[in-house]
Each structure stands twice: as structure tokens, then as C-alpha cells.
Amino acid sequence: MARRKKHKEIFALGNEAVxxxxxxxxxxxxAGYPITPSSEIMEIMAARLPHLEDGVFMQMEDEIxxxxxxxxxxxxxxxxMTATSxxxxxxxxxxxxxxxxxxxxxxxxxxxxxxxSTGLPTSPAQGDVQQARWGTHGDHxxxxxxxxxxxxxxEMTITAFNMAEKYRTPVILLLDEVTAHTREKxxxxxxxxxxxxxxxxxxxxxxxxxxxxxxxxxxxPMPPLGAGYRFHTTGLTHDRNGFPTSRPDEVVDLTERLHRxxxxxxxxxQLVDEVDTDGADIVVIAYGSxxxxxxxxxxxxxxxxxxxxxxxxxxxxxxxxxxxxxxxxHAKTVVVPEMNMGQISREVKRVNxxxxxxxxxxxxDGQIVTPSEILKVIMQG
Amino acid sequence: xxxxTGNEIIHQYLRHNKRFPHVLCAGCGHGIVLGTxxxxxxxxxxxxxxxxxxxxxxxxxxxxxxxxxxxxHTTHGRALTFATGxxxxxxxxxxxxxxxxxxxxxxxxxxxxxxxxxxxxxTALILNNNIYGMTGGQSSPATPLGAKSMTSPFGQLExxxxxxxxxxxxxxxxxxxxxxxxxxxxxNIMIEAIRRPGFNLVETLTPCHTQFGRKNKYKSPVxxxxxxxxxxxxxxxxxxxxxxxxxxxIPIGVFVERERDGLEERYxxxxxxxxxxxxxxx
Lengths: 381, 282
Known about the structure:
Strand content of chain A: 15-25%
Structural class of chain B: alpha/beta
Shape of chain A: globular
Largest interface: A-B, 47 and 39 residues
Number of strands of chain A: 15
Order of helices and strands of chain A: EHEHEHEHEHEHEHEEHHEEHEEHEHEH
Structural class of chain A: alpha/beta
Largest sheet of chain A: 7 strands, mixed
Oligomer: heterodimer
Strand order of the largest sheet of chain B: 2-1-3-4-8-7-10-9
Radius of gyration of chain B: 19 Å
Shape of chain B: globular
Number of helices of chain B: 11
């Protein structure tokens, strides 16, 4: 048997790894507006995309326009991405809601910076967690992912594209400045080592096609513009044919389907990594770069005989309740370190309902959460 | 000449089984613009599948729902951004943007100047009725100085935008203005705008009797059309008028004609150049 070719290895920034992941997933359209600390994603895309056969890179006039162009390109059949940071993410919110309503797949990367407002442009923070979940108006589900190291930036970007295409929805990848600006060696996987999912296109005659029809998966097939399936798309509440409606039964049908198409696939969407959580007395629940500090702290605690574990969240929303539940049933204490005032710890407390002691570590001074800080709290029990 | 009458042509392009009666007020000019657009597309022989209508929000935004093309009703003011993405992703498509004056000039003003600057291959139709109609008659950037509206009860204090000069300055390929009273002229303008590469803008004056007329002493739709007939004059004749006679007159016609490549074509050339160098290197 021929020996398998070694992985290509590169020394990359988290932001660079996002671009690598996007290209592996089939991204061929990028529209964005520069903002620290996400700009490298845009800069590298600008250099890479024109080399693809149909690659398009657009520097738009602002983040609102970037999201508009991304939605348009996705409707035209492309896999699309945009990247931004806090203030830009706020500007994108109306169009993120539109993409949810019009069921348009796309990936939004938000490399978080301190805030509110222009805040701390180049300091690490995790302040946009709840904005990612609840930033737009109205009731809707959303998928929010995160990554804690450079290799994971690549992998989670591919995952983000796959989920966007599978569920016809915008997917948000939340990174923090430490992850985005850390440079480490990563391996580029072989093409057969990762799955690439593309949206399902209709194969019925155009006159049979209903663009927003209920299906087994709840996700209707989506043709690219110009393929012969002429239909209406709107941000207004619409019926199965895409036309605006305010008939109560049709409004309820649409809203419920939008929720159900995500809800019934929780097992596929809610991703976590568990380190030594079986039988652990103390479990740290963390995400992003803080999860790296937590992993080191847990390891040190184990060395001094404390039964500590780590639940690393790779999906932040829909919140991985099932995994957290399991941990909370056994652990005496759960520690939730975050670079915000407690945006995921409230989810943990919601699931906990008073079973375990929940300790939070919150840093909002633009500094990272260190392993020793977490270890100190673990030692307190 | 086509053997069909105007109405028969239009009926081929409407989604008649679904969306009627329409939302527009009796006397509104928007239907005339839509009719003109359909006849222009028909004259150019564009297949329905190749046409994408991208509309903003408001009365003009609702037009997209009635026609049997690929139609997208976007967010307020952002139609051009969606259109940019569509055109750049698939340059084979004919992308036509329908926007109101509030849509295109106020919330979408930034997108308008940048789409014109990029010269991306879009036909932008601005349906200017000088007012926010669907929201209830508030003043827009196109409300004339002194005109009354729900938010300028004592007369508009701000000067209105000159859309033509704005688009010319920003670098549009083709800029024209027409009215729904001068329909044949509007149709010729629209055909030319859709045919050309790059960013082409047509501003159409279309009366809003319900919101603008009611506040500004136009007693009926007919009076508003009479106003259009009187106020609008050919650009060439307007230019010859002495300064003092220009008051209250609006020049119509074609103001800018350039034949520059659209951004999508320039982008395709860039990609092509990379392919050539990579082949040469082997």
C-alpha cells in the first residue's frame, strides 16, 4: 500500500486558518469591510479569491453593504463569507435577520473586541456572545460556533459552512482576539478527511417547486438565481410560495418551521469537547482562547490530585444543554471563566437550576484569563 | 414592431393568479413604471430566467411581487448591495433594482454613490414621488424646498437632492430622468439603460397623489399629471432657458452616456490574467 502523503503544514494566524477553512469548504465569494482584529481575514481573501476560477472579492462601503452583497451572492448560488468585529457586527444585524428569514446560507465571522461601542479595538474580549444570539429583532434560531486554537479555526470554519448549507441559515463563528492573532503550526487536512456539504438544489420541474415548502428535514431545496426557478424572496413573513402573508396559520407555519429545522438537529449542531469530565468533581466550562487556559489549569489540578475536568464549548448556540446537563448532574462545582461579565454563565445557570455550585470568573479589562486564575478557583472547590 | 398590444405584453409577465388586487392607490404612477419596465425587457428580448428584480422597501419595493422574474424584496435602502452581490456572483444575470426616493437617496445614499463609483452592472430605477408614501407621507430627500409633508408641516426647509448630478459625480455610466407622463420617452430611456454595461440609473418622476398631493394642494391625480406635463421639459430646451425661467421646471432626458466596462467584466479580466500566467509558467 502506498504511504499516505503527509499533511501540508503551515505556520498560520487564527485569521489565516479561517481563510484556509473557508476555501476548503468551497467559499468563492467574500464581501467585507475592514475592522480590527478581523482585517487579516479580508486581506488574505483579497489576495486569494481572484486566483480561483470564479472567485470574487468585494470591499464594500460598510458592513451593512457587505452582508447585503453576501446574501445576494449566496442567492446566486455561491458559498459566501464575511468577517468583522464588534461594531461591524452590530451593523450587520438587520441583514443577519433577513438571511434567517429568507433562509440564505452564509458564514459571518466575528472576531470579538472589547466594548461596548468602539471599546478596546485590539484587546481580547468575549463580549458579543449574547449579541450573536439575540442581536437581530424578532424570534428566530441561530447557530453560533467558536474556536479555541488555530487548527480549530480551520475546522470550525468548514463546520460553519457545512451547517449554513445544510440548514439554509446564516452561521456565526465567534472568535476572540487571542485565537485570531495567535500564530501556530496547523495541518491542512486531505480532501477525504473532512466533509463538505452543499445546499440541496431542487430537481423537480420549476412549476412544481415551492421555495419555502415544508420538507422532511424542514429545509427546502434552494436553486441558484437564473436556473429557471423563478420565485419571490422577501424579508416579510411569507407563505410557501414566498409571497408576503399575514394569515395567522401561515405566519405560525413559517416561524415554527424556521425553529424546527434547527431544533430537530441538535445532535448534529451542538458540538463540545470533553476533557476528563467523567466522574469529575469540578468542571470548567469554557470556550475560545479561555478554554486553552482552562485546559492547562485542569491538567495542573489533576496533577495535584483534584478530580477536575473541562467541557469546551465549540457550539455556543443553540446552547449545548444536553452536554452541560450531564456534567451538572455529577459535578459539585462548575467554573465558568469568560472575558465578559457572564454571558455564557447565565446559560449554565439556566440549565443548572440550582444543582451544582456555579462559580464565574469574569475579566473585562482587555486581558486574557490566565490558567493560574482558573486554578485558584478550582482549588477553592 | 410587436404584434401584441401593450397590455397583452404585460399580461405575459405578471403573476396574475396570485398577487392581485395590488397595493397601489388609484392614480399612482408606479404601475406605469412597472409597465414600462416590462415592455423594455420584452423589447430587448431578455428571457425571464435571466432577469433579477431586486427591490427595496416601500410602495416601489412591492412592485417586484407582481412580475414573473426572479424577484427579491430586500431591506430598506439596501437593494443595491444585494444587487451587487448577485451581479458579481453571476454576471450572466440582468440585475434591475427598483427603489423609491427615500430608499435610494436617504438610507441607501451611501450604497448609491458606491455602486455608481464601482460601475457595477446594475440598472437602478429610482421611482421618485418626492415623499415616503407607504410610511404615511413624511418628507424624503427628494421633497422639494417648501413642500409640505407629515414631517415638514411648515414647509420643507432642506434642499432636495439632484439625483442626476449626484449619480454623474459618483461616476455612473448612464444617467437619465423621465416621468410617468412622458411614457414613450421613458421607455426609450429604460431600454437604453438596461442594454448598457456598467451602472445605469434612471430617475422617474411618479406622482403620489395620496400623500404628496393631499398636502400640497393637488386636488386629484389628474392635477398631479398636469403638473408633471407642465414642469418636465426636455433637457436640451431646459438648457436654453434663461436662469429666471428655470424655476419650477425639471429637465428630463439623458444626462450622462458612457460605455465603460462594468466592474464584473474588469474582475473577470483579472481572473483571466492569473490563469494565463499560471499556464505560461508550466
